[in-house]
Amino acid sequence: MDKQALIDSWNDYVAPSQPCSPDDMARRVARWGAIPASPRAFVDTYVKGHERTLYSVIGSGVTDDPNFKPSIAAAENFHVDYIVAPKGCGAALHWHDSEEVFVVQAGRWEFDWIDGATGQTHTVTLGPRDTISVPPFVHRAFRSLDGEDPASGGMLVSILGGKTPGRVKWDAALAEKAKAVGAGFDANGMAAQASHG
Questions:
Q1: Residue ranges of domains in the chain
Q2: What's the rounded Cα separation, in Å, for the pair 156 and 100?
Q3: % helix / strand / coil in the chain, to the nearest 5?
Q4: Rounded to whole angstroms, how far apart are CA atoms 54 and 103?
Q5: Which residues, 6 or more positions from 20, have their beta carbon under 8 angstroms from its beta carbon?
Q6: According to the model, what pLDDT value does residue 153 have?
């Protein structure tokens, strides 16, 4: 290309910054010790084998816990959560109406998904810094292979697309297990378990 054309091309690629004060940016910082956490963010956590803690970092994401608010409320078309789970535990088969990306931060994690065309369940194992992007409407599940051991660790980052993600849809097998322990949804669609007694 002509040198002058390359120099002139910068006219289309230089722009000023939008306003963002230190107070504005402070509302967009999530410090690990202050990130809200919930061991009951989803209805499947009432079912043995699906115990985990969800840390709500950015955006409302999806949750069945009405009191669970993110550390950073502002989210432009994405939501970020951290997930920590005991060894062998994680989310039951479910789908979202938007893409979900998982990035393994520590430990090894297994991911299952159902191929709706064949009905087959497939599994892949991921390690630190591996990433998987699950399409909308595809049932997925995941579990920690290493647990919360500080030496090996086990943390997963979930990035969910969409300005306002829709409700989680669960696999029928989870529904039956949840019913057996008296777990379901209240009138507002939030997870609840019948009191024993």
A1: 37-183
A2: 12
A3: 15, 30, 55
A4: 14
A5: none
A6: 63
